[in-house]
Amino acid sequence: MERAARELRLAVRGLFGEGTEIVGDLYQISNQVTLGSSEEEIIGSFAQAILPRIIEYEYAARQSLAQNSAYQLDDRIWRAYGVLRNARCISGEETLALLSPLRMGLAMDRFHEVDLPTWTDLFLNTQSAHLQRAAGRALEGEERAIARAEYIRKRLHR
Asked: N or C: which end of the chain has fewer CB within 10 A?
């Protein structure tokens, strides 16, 4: 992905933007060249040239995984699901790292225990600010990790 991004003159960052690390397999992708281009030109270039190539690279990577490492791929997906369903304390970073293989399993039609709306809900509502808003107060480190794990368990045991 990173090699392809360089070829396309794109920046690959962590999910939360510049200066953040990549967690799981979730990225933020942006163009590096904007000088002299209008917003319409940049959007058009992304839609017509860049996005199809990114999708092509990802599809090829998924195909390779399915053909060459299917057992390991399924194991990664199901282990992630098992940890998420049973954890009693989980960090935001670990949550993203475990949600990532579930999303890939959904996209590759290899995992059906969670639907996309539930995955999206888990992705959004396990962020620190959402947990604190739901609690109605600030939550500190371990307290937030416990609340996150409880929220995930409740959503996955429906």
From this structure: C
77 lies in the same domain as 13: no
Angle 128-130-131 from CA coordinates, rounded to 5°: 65
Do 36 and 75 belong together in one domain? no
Domain stops at, among 68, 96, 119: 68
Q: What is the C-alpha separation between 38 and 47, in angstroms, rounded? A: 14
Where b means 16+ CB within 10 Å and e means fewer, 94-105 reads: bbbbbbbbbbbb
How many Cβ atoms from other residues are within 10 Å of residue 10's Cβ?
21
End-to-end CA distance of the chain: 35
Range of 17's domain? 2-68
pLDDT tens string 86-98: 999 999 989 999 9
In the chain, the number of structural domains is 2
Give the end of a domain, one of 21, 38, 68. 68
Alpha carbon dihedral 98, 156, 62, 21, in 10-degree steps, equals -30
Average predicted confidence (pLDDT) for the chain: 87
Name the nearest CA neighbour of 100 among 135, 69, 126: 126
